[in-house]
Amino acid sequence: MNVGADQQPRQARHVAIIMDGNGRWAQQRGLPRVFGHRQGADAVREVVKAAPDLGIRYLTLFAFSSENWCRPRDEVVELMGLLRRYLRKEVAELNANGVRLRAIGDRSRLDRDILDLINHAEALTAGNDTLDLMIALNYGAKNELVDACRALAHEVAEGKIDPSAIDADLLTARLQTADIPDPDLIIRTSGEQRLSNFLLWQAAYSELMFVDTLWPDFTAGDLSAAVGEYRRRDRRYGAVVG
Ligand code: IPE
Ligand code: IPE
Ligand code: MG
User: Fold this and answer.
1) Which ligand approaches the C-alpha of residue 65 most closely?
2) CATH number, span 14-140+182-232
């Protein structure tokens, strides 16, 4: 296990963010919700740019949940449009900055052109190692776990593994995040205090931070403050420390 005691000073290497509050940001200004999403995309740019200088090596951003399809059609179309624009406009710069981009989540429901953009971005940036940026798209942790269990069940049925050999490591290896360390810190903006089906398995020992700032107002300074607070947290992993 990745025990924190030997990491001095304590550094959040993997930060995951539930980017919440776009709708309320717009509503507070008497604007349609889509304006909040547009402003939220600017916050994404700022945070991705700032992350490496804060010692962050992995950044996972919750952009669209498997439940977000339940929103009004116009809003879903706008969110997909913003994603399209982000992938078209930002990937060259991300690549130049050494960012490796990957999507996690169920791709089967995404439009063909978005899939193409994702595949292209993943292939282009595969060799980069400054920052691993995971965008969670049509992501739901329960679905991810069900898929991993199904994969294990198939392997058992095919005689490749014995049921008694199944342990946490085997399951972890079948998650979409298999080669990514668990998040040290999960930040949720907008004051809501729940995980909303985000990284349930991987969050087992993550530090959780709930900030009132709405996502479009979240800045590099806020990220720096969160990483600073993380340094002061005491991670014990169930043990007695000190
Ligand atoms: C987060 O902001 C963006 C997505 C979930 C895609 P919201 O759209 O959930 O904003 P609120 O929570 O309604 O304010
Ligand atoms: C979680 O936010 C999903 C994303 C940030 C992409 P939601 O706004 O969808 O979550 P709930 O509905 O408040 O739990
Ligand atoms: Mg929300």
Assistant:
1) 2
2) 3.40.1180.10
